[in-house]
């Protein structure tokens, strides 16, 4: 591993003398710029210019372009085929962090979310750590759901939920294959949801998750931990969600003054 | 790859008959619960109970515990050493998505953020895609910064910024090694920042980024694209940020009604 001071001073050496680092950096920066253009729909027909065209568009060498495209291909964002060129695999869907919404609500207009219900059952005793987060006594029962969520034939996320017995009972009787759990909770409890605390992690997919989400093991996925409360503040739903990071980005608008909560 | 319908129906088969899937799922769920306890500081001395202790705590088999710990070790969250046991590598720092803040501001109280300035220069011509995002005419000049950001000897993120010439000029003269760019922009322009639009991606680290951040190539990192505006709405700063996902989580509080923006 380079000493950081060496790395920092290396930029004073003429470019031709330096081995791979500057080109790798250039490729990374180019990949960032290209990713942004892809995600914002700049290549409306899904076809990228050829290497020469991209090079002149970004003022980059052909090698840097090639390395940048390799990075984006590794992320699952583009494919490259001889004779066809470089094409965008699929658009990335944006999941807003500005309000609490289920996946089907979020993706309204993009397609139909369907859920493969892998598990939907009452549990006699919630795991102790879950009971604590749900603020119910140790040993309380509840409901456990696991759903693989598909958008138009593509698995997007794997959601594991523990619900309190109160909220879960009605949800179990609802249309778990076709609906968001959030709307089912609101309908069956007659209470609106209030807020949720979300922690967002990025991890590499273990083989089991990868197989379910149909991505290579070791691909990056979002791991969301979400605790959702009714409008009276009572927690009802603890979720662990794995989201395909090649197909979803999370969006937020942050204000310098902060929000009044 | 399993057909999803098969996967769904497999839970009707007695557990002993099923090969690896249920145990892998149990391990994943256990890893989720453990990760939450680690991150919320439940193991205050940084030492986890032994496998037997964890098994009885979570009602899980020894094998599931072992697999869960392997997943968390792969994430860089824990180490396991014979004779020492399982220890938390370091706490994960939380970066709130509730307000726009620089890293040093966010981590006040955790330690001192220092920045290895790898690049700080005026550029005669901003890349076309950057000029467009900054809403300046094609061919405009600006400032390019790249900083590796350290917290107490640990590299946390690699930030590449393009600033408008106006905002960048003063920032270049500021204390780039010790300060957040946000506070430098506010001081040197005399304008407060307003809001930023952030897109959060999860990607695997390319070898160049991995070497700089001192993580294994292929580890999961956050890739943030952030466009920051002055309070009058004028964009001043486009950033691409790679954040070590083994050391940082992003936190948000979401409201069902949404925020009034």
Which secondary structure elements does this structure contain, and how are they paired or packed?
The structure is a homodimer of 261-residue chains.
Chain A: H1 4-9, H2 21-39, H3 51-58, H4 62-74, E1 78-81, E2 85-88, E3 93-96, H5 103-106, E4 113-123, H6 128-133, E5 142-151, E6 154-164, H7 165-172, H8 181-189, E7 193-204, H9 207-213, E8 220-230, E9 235-244, E10 248-255
Parallel strand pairs in A: 3-10
Antiparallel strand pairs in A: 1-2, 4-5, 5-6, 6-9, 7-8, 8-9
Helix pairs in contact in A: 2-4, 3-4, 7-8
Q: Would you mind describing this structure in some detail?
A:
Two copies of one chain form a homodimer. Chain A is an alpha+beta fold. The first copy, chain A, has two domains: 4-88, Winged helix-like DNA-binding domain superfamily/Winged helix DNA-binding domain (Arc Repressor Mutant, subunit A, Orthogonal Bundle), CATH 1.10.10; 93-251, 3-Layer(aba) Sandwich (Chorismate lyase), CATH 3.40.1410. Chain A has helices spanning 4-9, 21-39, 51-58, 62-74, 103-106, 128-133, 165-172, 181-189, 207-213; strands spanning 78-81, 85-88, 93-96, 113-123, 142-151, 154-164, 193-204, 220-230, 235-244, 248-255. Chain A has a six-stranded antiparallel beta sheet with strand order 4-5-6-9-8-7. In chain A, β8 and β9 (235-244) form a beta hairpin. In chain A, α2 (21-39) crosses α4. Chains A and B meet through α1, α2, β4, α6 and β7 of A and α1, α2, β4, α6 and β7 of B.
